[in-house]
Amino acid sequence: MSLFFQSLVLGVLLGGLYALLAAGLTLYFGVMRVVMIAHSAFLILAAYLAWWFTSETGLDPLLSLVVTVPLFFVTGVLMQRLLISRLRPATLTMMSVLLTFSVALVIEGMLGFVFSGTQRRIRLPYSGDSLELFGANVAVVKLIAFGLAAVSLGALFLLLKKTQFGQALRATIQHPDAARLIGINTDRIAGYGFGLGLATAAIGGTALALDSTIYPSLHWHWIGPLMAIIVVGGLGSIPGAAIAAMLLGLGQSMLQIPLDTTWAQTIFYLALFATLMVRPQGFFGGRLAQRF
Amino acid sequence: MRNASDTTSDTTPGTAPPVAAGATTASGGRGQKIIKGVGLLLLAAAVLAFPSLAPDPFILSVGVVIMSYAVLATSWNFVGGFTGYISLGHAAYSGLGAYATALLVIHTPLNPWVAMLLGGLVVAAIAVPIGIASLRVRGASFVIVSIAMVLILLLVFQSWGEVTGGSNGLRVPRPFDASVLRPEQHERFFYLHAVLLAVALLAWWAIDRSRFGTGLKAIREDEDKAQSLGVPTFNYKLVAFIVSAFFTALGGGLYALWFGFLDPIFQFSILVGSYMVLMSLLGGIRSLFGPLLGAVIVGYAVEFFKNEYGDTQFHLVAMGLLLGIVVLFMPDGIIPAATALINRFRPQAASIREVSAGELAEQRRTASGTDPEPEPGATETDRLDHHSEGAKR
Asked: CA A66, A68, A72, A78 torsion: positive or negative?
């Protein structure tokens, strides 16, 4: 029973991180119809920057967010303006996959080149600490990571729902042509959407660096589950991505009790196939996802 | 000729004057046919002669690897070239083909070549549900499933140690007995790969000329319009996908028999899948020999890189940059890109009309047999157009 509860809590904590990252991934798809393969590569890049920051300065890795979040936002805007928008609209979805894939390869290669392929881990004074939470034993770093993810996701939600920029962004996602007609500069909004997506990768990467070992090719372990999540949730739907992330994160954590960790990961792919067979537009997606 | 005119939708020659056009296409067609035939013969001769020209067994083995890449890239092009659906995960099918062949050879008394063919059929059968799941919706889901397949198969083949050998790898018995020495092995496998490549190219060519192929190309250009014209888009895509998986699996199986050792990390590698994409894209996915051309260029570059710099992280960067450059600047392949670049430095045509006024006057003159006075107002444009026409040709 306590093992069950422990897995439940860990599942929720993991699901929170998945939710933040999947929200970013589905945001790119929403604004540009782009499957951003490099999302998880930027995630690992942020994790490496956090590790490097801590090992150079000795400060807390969370402080690296002050630099990485704006940096990633600008990188995202530039990437959309300089690379993605150059592609022909007719083949945008396919070619953007290849383009972002090549960005992922360059990032992975450069990380290996600069930091070598050795596995890295941040040592913190509170790394080993854990809290007793309703009988479950939870590491503090996992709680911090979850808190970071939850706060960012909440901020993203408020930004999209309460501000004028958020309204413009949602209008661009729902119907770009109509958004242009009412005077929204959809190109600029798409750029900012890309920046926001990459900012989630910066936050997620820092959270990831707190409690896991990182190495350059780690991003392949993340992109598969994240892509499965956004399909299950419905491409382009941010609440859908968050709900699907929570459910699948919980499922993965639960399956780790009877199975080993490798097999537990297959739940994402099984969910992906089941979704495409039963409900290709995803469980929470609307009209948008139907055609993609 | 046929190929060039029906695939490049944006550069169709347009309505040339009927008399002149008939004459030029007839002679141009014959000339092009001869050139094509000679080119094909030269290509075949080069392939046949390569093993005897190769200075040492190492170069020969590089030749086998390049041939293997050519088979895989051509197989990839059945779905990528015809339908425009880019699969980044075709390594899943070459890997499955390799493992299916190896396991059949190890566990059954089958002849290795029969095992290879059977392996291809098994993979084609596996491709049916995958295709149904990923092709029902457009583009993005297809890519996501293709990558997911490689990742999931890597997980499964690494964990399922008792059948696949897990991370320790799987040794594949050789189809030729020990009396056949290594260089001889390389030579035989080079020719076997060449035969498989020829079969795949022939199949591609046959589909390209068929009604089925026309339907697939319609899907690539505009899936909605194709559907509204009555093309059974889903079935067509599915068949193309299965054919592609079948040939890819055969390529993987043949590679397994040659290489003799399988490791999940290298079989189910995203990188191998992206090599197939890069090769086809660089050579040109709309042409029959594009993937072969790309395989020779990229395959040679990859082997050169590995030999020169070892297996560093740097080849990832080079690969990523090359793919990015191809996607951004030459999505139609190296030959159209080079032609466009050359044309850029030529004098530009001043008239956007496809038939100039001068040409039209000439045409009318020959058609009517008389020599009418040119209208006074037309002379200025006439001269201009003549000038531009000379520059364009």
From this structure: positive
